[in-house]
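Example S7 (structure tokens).
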């Protein structure tokens, strides 16, 4: 009897495999980190082979720990770090370059040149995205133009492209022995190559980035009863399972938070922060620096769209305190350190390591710490790091209100950093609205599981998944309006100090 559904959650710093029951409760989990490759300033890469190996290890580990086998699972879904770009040879399975990660800024000149040439308007109109280093198309163009032999290989059909979801699905469904080369509408909407209205690759956009169409995967629904393929019997599952859901991580979290109605929103706290607002079947262009993106498409139903505010560096700022500065030994120590001080002591930290994303979109910005005096200590820096996460979220929420006219009564939150109670209280204080974390905070994996389960009838409809959602903890704002606005004014001054730091031509 198939009692459970599995979900691969491949993130920026780690990969996990999780198993859920019909009530949406976690049954099993195994998680492993992978290397962050930093060849030079602004460059961020991953080894795709290592990521697939970690994926296999997490699947095998979770199943072994829980005493489960493939026969216990009804289906499997995939969710992934979006925009991270892989090019590989489909005949050998070998990547032709490291995966270029979404945080990477090496394409800033490509993007700036497109904007100067007037292509930005077409990209915004068709793809719903600004010409920014964040997205896949510029990374793919860079590989085609800078890695010897790749363009010629692409013309011969010996180089294909995908984001991490496509790479994993191709390997899990057979690899060089007939692996399926697919992506879904949510991941395709992050490439700058898909037309939001047609949900197909767009010839004008392909021409702007000089991308051969034959490199691209086919675009499928996020939850597909026709399956993308079945897992190979000699793979990590040791059996055939329908692989039938694929969502970019933030769209998966929106599904996991059961934000199925227009006007419902969630905010995920991970390596970066990502707020999505469901806008239904309507494509809502942003005038305030947000992204228009596909939220999900379930089977043959119409696609659902969203407004998104993407912040590049939030949880990874805590990792920076740990790995680069040695201020803390474990990420979880930041909360206790921040609580050694009553406030930020006048210190603001803007972690614009990859420039500023929504709503500013300034690739010329770089990180800064301002307001320091001899009075300040590492507790103030830890506190400023947590506040930076919250202030960046406020900037996004303000833009979302401006674009949509919807004022949130409550913010649903998820992701690993929501375990930090101090961070969540600061978020409620800085926003001035209650913050609610569900019982299952790892909603990214849960959303992929929901997509897979809906495709095979494990859950009969989205209303059945809604009944699984339960509030775990709620934080009410404690700051008064004056304290809130004074804090935000300091943050805005700090943002100004980050600008025009890097020459982009």
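Recovered sequence:
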């Amino acid at each position: 009897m198939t009692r459970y559904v599995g979900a691969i959650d491949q993130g920026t710093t780690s990969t996990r495999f999780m198993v859920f029951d019909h009530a949406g409760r976690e049954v099993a989990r195994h998680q492993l980190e992978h290397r962050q490759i930093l060849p030079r300033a602004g460059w961020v890469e991953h080894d795709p082979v290592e990521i697939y190996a970690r994926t296999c290890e997490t699947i095998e580990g979770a199943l072994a720990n829980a005493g489960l086998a493939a026969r216990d699972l009804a289906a499997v879904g995939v969710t992934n770090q979006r925009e991270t770009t892989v090019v590989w040879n489909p005949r050998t399975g070998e990547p032709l370059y490291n995966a270029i990660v979404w945080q990477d800024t090496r394409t800033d000149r490509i993007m700036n040149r497109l904007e100067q040439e007037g292509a930005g308007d077409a990209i915004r109109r068709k793809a719903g995205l600004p010409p920014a280093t964040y997205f896949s198309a510029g990374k793919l163009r860079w590989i085609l133009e800078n890695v010897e032999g790749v363009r010629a290989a692409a013309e011969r059909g010996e180089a294909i492209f995908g984001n991490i979801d496509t790479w994993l699905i191709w390997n899990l469904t057979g690899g060089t022995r007939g692996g399926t080369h697919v992506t879904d509408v949510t991941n395709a909407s992050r490439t700058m190559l898909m037309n939001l209205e047609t949900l197909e690759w767009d010839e004008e956009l392909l021409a702007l980035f000089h991308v051969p169409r034959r490199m691209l995967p086919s675009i499928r629904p996020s939850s597909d009863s026709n399956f993308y393929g079945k897992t190979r019997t000699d793979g990590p599952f040791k059996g055939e399972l329908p692989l039938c859901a694929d969502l970019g991580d933030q769209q998966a979290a929106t599904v996991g938070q059961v934000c199925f109605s227009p006007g419902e929103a969630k905010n995920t706290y991970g390596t970066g922060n990502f707020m999505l607002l469901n806008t239904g079947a309507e494509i809502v262009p942003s005038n305030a620096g947000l992204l228009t993106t596909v939220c999900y498409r379930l089977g043959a139903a119409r696609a659902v769209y969203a407004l998104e505010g993407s912040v590049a560096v939030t949880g990874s700022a805590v990792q920076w305190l740990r790995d680069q500065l040695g201020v803390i030994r474990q990420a979880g120590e930041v909360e206790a350190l921040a609580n050694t001080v009553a406030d930020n002591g006048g210190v603001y930290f803007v972690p614009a390591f990859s420039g500023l994303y929504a709503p500013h979109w300034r690739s010329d910005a770089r990180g800064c710490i301002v307001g320091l005096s001899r009075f300040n200590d590492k507790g103030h820096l830890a506190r400023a790091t947590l506040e930076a996460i919250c202030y960046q979220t406020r900037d996004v929420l303000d833009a979302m209100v401006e674009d949509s006219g919807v004022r949130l009564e409550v913010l649903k939150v998820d992701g690993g950093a929501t375990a930090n109670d101090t961070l969540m209280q600061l978020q409620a204080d800085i926003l001035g609205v209650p913050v609610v974390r569900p019982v299952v905070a790892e909603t990214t994996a849960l959303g992929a599981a929901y997509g897979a389960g809906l495709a095979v009838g494990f859950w009969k409809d989205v209303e059945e998944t809604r009944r699984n959602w339960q509030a775990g903890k709620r934080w009410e704002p404690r700051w008064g309006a004056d304290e809130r606005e004074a804090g935000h004014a300091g943050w805005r001054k700090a943002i100004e100090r980050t600008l025009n730091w890097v020459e982009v031509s």
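Notes on this example. Residues 106 and 258 are 36 Å apart (CA to CA).
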